[in-house]
Every structure is written in structure tokens, then in C-alpha cells.
Amino acid sequence: MMLPKLLSDSHARVMRDLRVSLTDRCNFRCLYCLPETEEAANFYRTKFDPVRNPNPEKLKLPEWKPRSEMLSFEEIERLVRLFVELGIEKVRLTGGEPLLRQGIEMLIARLAVIPGLQDLAMTTNGFHFVKKGRALKEAGLRRISFSMDSLGQANFKRMTGRDGLNEVLAGIALAKTLGLAPVKVNAVVIRGINDHEIERLAEFARSEHLSFRFIEFMPLDSSRAWLKEMVVPGKEILERLQTRFTLKPIASANPSETARRWAFEDGRGEIGIIAPVSEPFCGHCNRLRLTADGKIRTCLFSLHEHDLKSLLRSGASNEQLTESVRAIVWHKEASHRIGKSDFVQPARTMSCIGG
Length: 355
Ligand code: SAM
Ligand code: SF4
Description:
Blueprint: E1 17-21, H1 38-46, H2 73-85, E2 90-94, H3 104-112, E3 119-124, H4 129-139, E4 143-147, H5 153-160, H6 165-177, E5 184-189, H7 198-208, E6 211-216, H8 234-244, E7 247-250, E8 259-264, E9 270-274, E10 287-290, E11 295-297, E12 306-307, H9 308-313, H10 318-330, H11 350-353
Parallel strand pairs: 1-2, 1-10, 2-3, 3-4, 4-5, 5-6, 6-9
Antiparallel strand pairs: 7-8, 8-9, 10-11, 11-12
């Protein structure tokens, strides 16, 4: 069978967006991602399902990969160059927490000059951004997304396991000053934990001129305690916001955009709702993921990963790597199975996959 030149799959989707994870480690312990704190245990113990989580105090963290298994900057650059030749236009650096990777600005400088790469972005919890932001921008970072689920000191700590709200707010302010516009901020909404802050977060987006994203909680937490009752559906978030604000839909020319976006009446800032659980957008998915240890994942919920690192380290030529990537992408899953009777949560969880 002749495989197509661009990275197309068997469902006629063309890949344009690559997420590159730089590490599986993180300095936060978000209860929807890497829960380990007593607060997280209390949440999972008492909230919805004491039977399924009888012993949540034994919240298990993943086993971190040794450094030797992580792709080096040289390896990442080589692979990104190949992906861009195959039609990838946008790269987002993520993790784990990407700012934990030493010398990350050197990687950004290498990637920023790749011909054909149109967008270089990063998703971060923002804790270290004040220290590193300027160097990242100077190295060529074009856009940044912060994660910030709460504007209350106590609730922020409860959700992330760390007392870091002030640092994140300072990071967001710096990103604006550096001109990394539009500065994006993501919040995962969990019923009973931060859903009472939806309006407050949207008001913050308006007053600070941010592009704010409300994200449905997905079954990718390391405690495997996700239940659909914890998900606040995107429709409910929107209805609440429409009660409080006059919102105008923003039309998008890009069918692969995951967020449905809305502008405030006065044009300051915008909100977006990402609803992969209640309104899957798999039909237009154009994303691939490269894990920190060099595995390709064709879906967040893939049950199989493809080991590009071994091929790379065994001396494969660019042609061999390219052919391998094409063949892998061809078999990208049609859609995730959340909510279906045959749904299986992937072995690796969000921080190890690269969100
Ligand atoms: N550490 C960085 C951060 O938090 O921004 C980057 C990695 S994090 C895994 C990337 C994104 O995934 C964050 O916006 C985070 O909120 C989101 N995320 C993590 N676990 C999630 C889950 N179970 N459901 C939905 N989003 C999740
Ligand atoms: Fe760390 Fe990001 Fe996961 Fe929170 S969401 S634990 S900041 S990787």
C-alpha cells in the first residue's frame, strides 16, 4: 500500500499539531492529574464513590522514567524537523511540567528556527515562569498557556497540592508584559471543587484580557478515580456564563480547534470551552503526541504507544523514521471511547503522556 506524503490517517484527517512532552515529572500534584495529597485523598474518598476508591490515601504516583530514557534536545530537534517536513505546523511543549527541564530555552532556540514551523507554544503550570519567561521569549517562544484552576489561595492549594497561586498570577502578568499574546489560561472544572469559581475565573479573563479555557475533567488521573459525576459538562458551564455575561460566539476557520470560543461584549478577553467528554471533537483531530521518552501516541486515550526512540537510537535514517511515523499515523484511532462500555483508561496518565 502506498502511504500518503503528508501525515494523513485512514479517516482522512491530516496531522498539523504535535505536542512534545519534555518530562513526566512535575512540581505540582493536581488532584485531576497526579493526586498525592491528603486533600486529594479526602476528595476521592468521600466525594462520589467510596466503594471504587476504598483506600485513596494510597494514591499512587507513576514511576518516573530515568533521565537516560528521556529524549535529548538533539533528538527532539531531529524529530521535530522531520515532523515539520511531514506537514506539522504547530508544536506545543508540555509535560509533566516543561519548565522543570534544565536549559529549556536552548531547546526553544533550536526549534524556533525550523523552517516551516509556524507556531511554537508551551503549556505550563506557571510556577517557574517568572524566573524563565524572559529567556523563553528571547529564545523564540511565541505563545504560552498557563494552568490555573482557582483564584482562591486555599482552593488553589487544594487542587494543585501546592501553595503557588501568587507565583502563577505573577507569571501570567509577566507573559502579558512580554507580549506573548494572546496569553491563554486553562482551568479544569471539577464538580464540587472549583465549579463555584466559573464566573469569577471568567471575570478575571475579561479584566485581564486573557484567552481563558474551561476544560472538562477527563479520565486520565493517576489515581484512576475519575467518575462522570465529577465532570461539569461544557453546556452547563456555558449556560452559567451566559446568565452572567453577554457572550458572542467567535467563528473559527479551523475545524480542528478544540475550544468553542466566546467573546465578551466589550471585546476584552475571551472564553473557550473544551468539552472532550460530553461533546467529543475526534472527527477533526489533527494532533499527535511525542512523550518525553520518545513514544508516539496518536490519541490521548491510545492504549498502544509506538517506540520512536529505539528506532532513533538504533541509527535509523531520516527516511526510515519518516516511513515509520507515516505508518503509525495511518492507524490513528477514529475516536476515544469515554462513556462507552468498552472504555479502558490508558496505562499512562496525563503527566506522563503530555497534556
Ligand atoms: N504541567 C503543565 C500544566 O499543568 O499546564 C503541562 C502539562 S498538563 C498535563 C497539560 C494540561 O492538561 C493542563 O492544562 C492540565 O490542566 C490538563 N489536565 C491534566 N489532567 C487533566 C485531566 N484529567 N482532565 C483534563 N485536563 C487535564
Ligand atoms: Fe503537574 Fe500539569 Fe499535571 Fe498539574 S496538570 S500535576 S501542573 S502536569
